Amino acid sequence: MAAIKQGLEQKLQQKLSPLQIQTIKLIEMPVQALEQHVREVLNDNPVVDDTPQGGSDDEPRDVSISQVEAQEQSGGSLEENYGPQDDDIPSYNLHVNNWGKDERPEYNTFSVKQSFTQSLQEQLGYRNLTEHQRTVAGFIIGSLDEDGYLRRDIESLVDDLAFRAGVESSAEEVEQMLKVIQEFEPSGVGARDLRECLLLQLEDKKRTPSVENAIRVLETQFDAFKNRHFQKIMTRLHLSEEEMKGVLDEIRRLNPAPGGQIDDSYNEQAQQVVPDFQLDYENGQLILSMPRFSIPELRINRKYSEIMENGRLSESKADKEAASFVKQKIDSAKWFIEALRQRQNTLESTMRAIIDFQHDYFVDGDESSLKPMVLKDIAERTGFDISTISRVVNSKWIETHFGIFPLKYFFSEGLENSEGEEVSTREIKKVLRDMVDNEDKHNPLTDDELVDGLAAKGYKVARRTIAKYRALLDIPKARLRREL
To answer: Is the CB of residue 301 less than 8 Å from the CB of residue 45?
Structure first.
């Protein structure tokens, strides 16, 4: 029988405080979500009061959180520590210097396009359909991907309608409703593959000889067209070189991803972008500010502070329990307000570090001025953890004098140029895109030729890196870029 051994083992375990948890959550929130969260705290925590100070001398005055902390430490009453109620009591002010002093400050708001799903649902509302048909069509719309395609087979939709929506339907009905959706704008929506998407768009166009030929090509020679075997197509369909050019011109004007015409980067309810930062360039200086939002001065309601005070002095169990409850609510309020302060400082410090790092870019907006920058670079400048920088960057936007950008836009890795200097991969991608745009389309550049071209411009890039960047930029291989 094995012997039973006993021993001591020491472990170091870090536990986040309530304040740290609050701060992490608030840092992740963009400005609109933060304002909504503040409203929820005001509704959920009865101890917190946002009523402006004022009123008659007979009305009880609220007390600031800092006063309650002092009261707890001293053990005295509010009257002893702070004098009569009609004394001027300083508030716990949440406003920071660059937010201004407006009582009802306004956002700088920027409209975004209507979401893809909303647009289709709106068009569905104009159709004369039964409630059952509308439900089926709405389910199909919800099943489309971000490019506007229906990537699932009809039978799967019938099953999902039954099990997930409790709606009995048939393949014929789903197919019928899909055809209704395929008549919506943008043209090509609801297609099940690229071929159908392009054909739907051609069917909506005026029937010119080039459109007719393009339809013939896609219906009968799609595989050859995908592989750009234009000579085979011309032979099989008896098309002249001029007619084939007309076909290519027609198809080139079509949109292979109709869903991408409408911005669906936010959920269906989002209708505006509110920048978390604003950067102005005045008299050669970059001036950073943060949008203002409606956070009032938060105080502790006097009646609750008195409950806590009375409970400490009372022998009653009920009074002590009430005081304990109020103490928890007051602590929660203190953590929340301090977390707001820390969020403000963290966001501002991080954004200033980014601006300092990318100073030349923020002056003129020239993309080639963007330096390689990763989260670690900003973490080292601010002293924050990389995870904190990541939370700040996520879902945050900045308004500049040359456009509105997500903070993620300014981060990219780097490669060395021929002089040993580190350059942003975004700069290299821009040069690559320019080379492809300006190439001879009758004899497009191969990946090896792109490597040589970039090397001639001072960029040392491997062939596999070129292939990777082409994929990221949606640039096909040289053979597929060749034109007649």
So the answer is: no
Identify whether residues 138 and 196 lie together within a single domain.
yes
Do 467 and 431 belong together in one domain?
A: yes
Q: Does one domain contain both 121 and 240? A: yes
The residue range of the domain holding 124 is 116-261
Give the residue ranges of DSSP H helices in 253-385.
302-313, 317-357, 359-364, 375-382
The answer to whether 79 and 94 are in contact (CB under 8 A) is no
By three-state DSSP, how is residue 108 classified? coil
* Domain annotation covers residue 325: yes
Phi and psi based region of residue 451 (left: phi greater than 0; alpha: psi -120 to 50; beta: remaining) = alpha
Can you tell me the distance from the alpha carbon of 62 to that of 25, in angstroms, rounded to the nearest whole number?
28
Tens-place pLDDT, residues 156-194: 889 888 877 788 899 999 999 999 999 988 889 999 999
How far apart are alpha carbons 46 and 373 in whole angstroms?
45
* 219 secondary structure, DSSP code: H
Strand, coil or helix: what is 425? helix
CATH code for the domain in which residue 435 is found: 1.10.10.60
Q: Is 205 found in the same domain as 154? A: yes
Q: Is 288 helix (H, G, I), strand (E, B) or coil?
A: strand
In 3-state terms, what secondary structure has residue 262? coil
Residues 73 and 152 in one domain: no
Peptide bond preceding 186 in cis form (omega within 30 of 0):
yes
In this structure, are 66 and 187 located in the same domain? Answer: no
Residue 151 — φ and ψ, nearest 5°?
A: -90, 5
- Alpha-carbon span 215 to 198, nearest angstrom: 9
Q: What is the DSSP string of 394-410?
A: TT-EEEETTEEEEGGGG
Collapse the DSSP code of 180 into the 3-class scheme (helix H, G, I; strand E, B; otherwise coil) and give the result: helix
Provide φ and ψ at 398, rounded to 5°: -130, 135
The domain boundary, picked from 313, 337, 361, lies at 337
* 221 Cβ contact partners less than 8 Å away, ≥ 6 residues apart: 232, 233, 236, 237
Give the integer Cα–Cα distance in Å for 163 and 127.
Answer: 26
Tell me: do 424 and 305 sit in the same domain: no
Nearest to 150 by CA among 177, 110, 122, 168: 177
Residue 418 and residue 467 in one domain: yes
pLDDT digits (tens, 9 = 90+) for 107-163: 455 544 456 788 888 888 888 889 999 999 999 998 888 888 998 889 988 988 887
10 Å CB burial of residue 176 (0-12, 13-18, 19+) is: middle
Cα separation, 220 vs 237, in Å, equals 9
Does residue 403 belong to any structural domain of this protein? Answer: no
For the whole model, what pTM was predicted? 0.49
Chain centre to alpha carbon of residue 332: 29
In a domain, 409, yes or no: no
Query: How many domains are contained in the chain?
Result: 3
Q: Give the phi and the psi of residue 289 in degrees, each rounded to 5.
A: -140, 165
